Amino acid sequence: MLQCWERKVVQVTEPGHTVLEEKIILFLKKELLRLKQILSPDYQESNEMKSEEESDAREGVLQMALHFLCKMEHQDLADELNDNEMNVGCQKDLKRNLKNKYQSVFEGIAKQGSSVLLEKIYTDLYITEGESGKVNEEHEVRQIEYRSKKPAGQDRPIKCVDIFKPSSIHDKPIRRVLTKGVAGIGKTISVQKYVLDWAEGKDNQEINFILPLCFRELNIMKENEYSLMDVLHHFFPELKEFKFVCKKKYKVLFVLDGLDECRLQLDFQCNESLTDMRAVKSLDGILTNLIKGNLFPSALLWITSRPAAAGTIPAECVDLVTEVQGFNDSQKEEYFRKRISDERCAGKIISHIKSSRSLHIMCHIPVFCWIVAMVLQMIYSTGHKQIPKTLTEMYTYFLLFQTKQRSIKFDSVNDLDPQWNQKLILNLGRLAYQQLEKGNLIFYEEDLRECCLDVKEAAVYSGMCTQIFREESGIFLGTVFCFVHLSIQEYLAALYAFLMMANEGNDIISTQHAHQKAESMIILHKSSVDKALAHDDGRFDLFLRFLLGLSLESNQTLLHGLVSRRQGGFMDKIRTVLGLAGNDKTIKYIKDKIREAPSSEKMINLFHCLNELNDHSLVEQIQSFLSAGKLSKAKLSPGQWSALVFVLLTSDQNLDVFDLKKFIRSDEALLRLKPVVEESHTTLVDSCGLTEESCTTLASILCKESSKLRYLDFSGNHIGDAGVKKLCDGLQSPNCVLGTLRLQSCSITAEGCAALVSALSSNPSHLTELFLYSNKLGDSGVKQISTLLRNPDCKLDCLLGNCSIKAEGCAALVSALSSNPSSHLTWLSLWGNNLGDSGVQQIRALLSKPGCKLKIYYRTETV
Q1: Residue 571, CB-side half-sphere exposure with 13 Å CA sphere
Q2: What is the pLDDT of residues 140-193, one digit of tens each?
Q3: Are residues 663 and 639 in the same domain?
Q4: 721 occurs within a structural domain
Q5: What are the beta bridge partners of residue 201?
Q6: 200-209 pLDDT, tens per residue?
Q7: What is the domain range of residue 14?
Q8: What is the pTM of this model?
Q9: Are 151 and 180 in the same domain?
Q10: Handedness of CA 598, 599, 604, 609 (dihedral sign)
């Protein structure tokens, strides 16, 4: 019986055994081929998902291969194969985890409502190559306002996906990139998209590992010591088995996001050098050595930062600076059409944003677009008649809707009137104001406790405060708080100052005391104006706009229930005064300050403050002059001059070319319009009756660190040698980028020519065209210019027509050009000079030399 059964089994299984043998051999061949490919230096893991059931079998083949390689005494190949196989497995786990982490986004406010897929709302951002990583202390809204005026095509755009790829501009590999941008502009979302595309196998697959680290999380670990490997294993536990033994073999990208949130010292000067990834040191020492390239020198590094903190990284530690400039005008529209499914509603929002210059500028910031979309969608859907046109109105509606949503979600109250939690809003406002004073944007639990804020309560009120909470691999990384955007922090700080005065009569800013309680709000306004003007970094600029905007009845109506309405109360007394005189006293005070404003940035912010108070008188006067074409003849007051500057700097008009002839032709006009000239690349002030005073004004513009002026036509102004000498103070500045200077008919003699030569000799590389036609330079002046042309760094082309030059001066020019074969000079105009036959002969001799590409014009002919 048993023998019969065994014969049947053999008969049945023999064909199956053959098939099994064939499948095993085929599988072995495929796996051995894969192992061979893994040993190749340019191997890339396939994105095709392999069957999980085969994982044990693949592990068995790997162990067999390792065993036989060791038996064959190829231990080096065995180690490399084992390391590469580990690389493939770890990379796959890392990509899977990063995909899960980054494929969704909580737009605007983390952990509020449901998340959306990044690919559904992502809109490309405008990223350019930045000028430097230096500190920018201007308020971020000022930077946005400047960017909105920048002529198209002036920057070199860069696609985020190509940020480390070589280009014709850079002659060396790019290893360390610093990306800067104002708060909410899209730096982190750009990082998220870059990492997600890599994790999904779409882009940059030549990179083996992308390791994103966030400074706000690293801050929690600053008190203890770690090795770089410890840090990586904390944040990426899937890499615990991978040792990075051969660092050069793997292309690794470290992303350090949010440098401005870093609370480490980052002492690049004093931290000792560190090269061992397993050496235990302070986190500060690890990061500085990673950035300097001592640790993991082959790794790529991408750091993101707000402009104010960009200078923390030494220039020698950065190969490329890029700048996220947010949405350009077309991208704004694209965002709203993606974000809002109702095309009609999206169109109405886009039209409304375009009608308000201040709102349109702020929409460069993606987070602000999110706020606008939320507010205007709600307004259009509920049929509100009042549409926000100012920043204060927009943020007041934002607070209103967030409060209503909180009431519906947590208190089950679906009432038309908001259920204000006055105590919580005051505490949030106190936190916002105190941290604004300190310049902090990231807060910790102790900061909240100081303001009587309960951590859980603040987290519940997530419309205005975000809680970032992470717990990975059993390591508690702590809780960090921040407002959604700096502007929301400034709004809440202003609301706190307003409510403290309106409800309690407490002035948190001014040290003055009003004679009458009803005048206290005006004193608060005036002291806030002074506070904003006193801070050069613009820290209280938006705060001031919001505080003044909140004094309007229209905004207080939206906040009813939050602003005390007790009859005979403090707010009633304030309202009595403000009702009788409006905000006239505040408006007059601001206009007085506009006349005294120390800078164009301060003046512009004060005009925005007038806009928040619904006073447009100065601007309307200037606009009427402009539309009537009377500006070149009008006599303007100091306030009207400031209004003209404001209109020009904030209008849609391209400021690339400034022509003084469109305005009043005078030294005063040029001085008053100096902020506009500073934004231009071409300045035309020819034949405007200007004097030495204007030379001083223009020299100060050329000396500015951010000087943009590349073309200056000063012709026809009889400034003489004294004026030229003052202008030379700017020409010799290392910040000067002027390429063309026209000084025809300016009454310049040899003395002025000597000053020009001296200035250009100290900074010879920038000026390429110098027009000195119809000046009495004489031979002595031309001899001075000849010394400049001998400089191999000089790139000058000269127009010296009608300059009283004779044969002696011509000889000096020819000698200089003959002695400097590397001269950049391509043409030289000597028309209208009495060169004589000897001068002409010298010119012909020079032009007949082999390889001479020079063109020289004399009389009316080309030689």
Answers
A1: 20
A2: 555 555 555 554 445 667 788 888 887 656 667 888 999 888 777 778 888 888
A3: no
A4: yes
A5: none
A6: 888 888 888 8
A7: 1-37
A8: 0.69
A9: yes
A10: negative
